[in-house]
Amino acid sequence: MSAPLTIIGSGMAGLGLLRALRAIDAERPVTLITADGGDDYSKPLLSTGFAKRLSPDRLAARSALRVAEELGAVVRTHTRVEAIDLATRTLQIGAERLPWGELVLATGAAPAVPFAVPPAAASRIFTINDLEDYRAFHGALVALGRPGRVAIVGAGLVGCEFANDLLAGGHGVSLVAPEAAPLARLLPEPLGRALGEAFEEADMRLALGVGVRAIETAGADVVVALDDGSRLVADLVLMATGLKPRTALAEAAGLTVSATGIHTDRHLATSAPGVHALGDVACVDGVNAMYVQPLQAGAKALARTLTGTPTPVHYGPWPVVVKTPLLPVVALPPARPPSRWRIEGEAGDLTALAEAEDGRLIGFALTGACVRRKVELARVAPPLLG
């Protein structure tokens, strides 16, 4: 019999691995440990739920109990692993020492908040990175008894998707970021400005090129003071200022980690025998790709590796589809700064081609009607991890 497998984390990575493993091996003992409720849900749906008026319960596809029954695993919910002992191959959970045969760290990433949240405003400041976060924010909006005024800090992928979704859900939205245009990490500035213009035309307020100086309370309101002297008044604040891989547990155990995640090879093996990392927490051969397709590819490859067929992970030229219906966006950001961006089109229908010195295509970005070129351009773009 194969050694018992323990998975820490019940997000898309942990549950995706369990499903992929069960498609190959129905018998191996598996324990899945999660700090939250362990509900199975599609994380991308979190940023579409407000427009569709979806309650948190409607986002959950199945409960942790059903996951355990259907996938033949022990699922331990609301359980926090305090330490990993590599020498004894045990996990510390309070006074318990839980043995493991092989271990997979699928601990994901946590929202990175760049400044201290004032205690007086803490109950009105939120991040959304999982179903529990969505539940808390959804509850706060419902408690208002009317459409909310939401200030979103951060105009990256998460900030823009939630901004579009909340606006479509009937709420007032202000979007704040220090960058000159939305999606600065995915789009060259002209395409980012096109998205910003679409947001403004839909009555979203943009405060770009400015930072947050302070967040204060004023009665029932939250006031976001910006460093240009202006102020935004809101009911709730949603922080969307990036994600940081949850590496503390691995680092304390002595695994090789960095700011980009837990370091693994192409087989998702960490620096310790018998320990693998998967998903947003894993930096695979120098690449941390916090998107759905790389995560799914990693889960399938690791399932084969753990069942006796060592399989290196491969990431194709997979574009990122941004859920902003006000202006559709697709981007395959280049792995290195391009020699030039070649931009074509007009109004909101733009194509940007990232080219190397020799003219080779190394990435692209598309907006509006031009997103239909996604498949055509992906065919000639280099893989993210070949």
Shape category: globular
Which residue ranges are poorly predicted, with pLDDT under 50 across at least 5 consecutive positions?
none
Give the N-terminus to C-terminus distance in angstroms: 34 Å
Tell me about the largest β-sheet: 5 strands, parallel
The total of helices stands at 9
Radius of gyration: 22 Å
Percent helix, as a range, is 10-25%
* Total count of strands: 28
Strand fraction equals 25-35%
Q: What is the spatial order of strands in the main beta sheet?
A: 5-2-1-9-22
Structural class of the secondary elements? alpha/beta
| Overall pLDDT | 96
List keywords for this structure.
five-stranded parallel β-sheet, 30% strand, alpha/beta, 23% helix, single chain, 386 residues
How would you sum up this structure, described in words?
The structure is a single chain. This protein is of the alpha/beta class and 386 residues long. Helix content is 23%, strand content 30%. The protein has nine helices and 28 strands. It has helices at residues 12-22, 56-59, 64-71, 131-144, 157-168, 189-201, 248-253, 292-306, 374-378; strands at 5-8, 30-33, 40-41, 60-62, 74-76, 83-85, 90-93, 96-99, 102-105, 109-111, 125-126, 149-153, 172-177, 205-208, 212-218, 221-226, 231-234, 236-239, 243-245, 257-258, 261-264, 275-277, 282-284, 320-322, 329-332, 340-346, 349-355, 361-367. The chain has a five-stranded parallel beta sheet with strand order 5-2-1-9-22. A five-stranded parallel beta sheet has the order 11-18-12-13-14, covered by helices on one side. It has a five-stranded antiparallel beta sheet with strand order 24-25-28-27-26. Helix 1 packs across helix 8 (292-306). It is globular and about 60 Å long. The two termini are 34 Å apart.
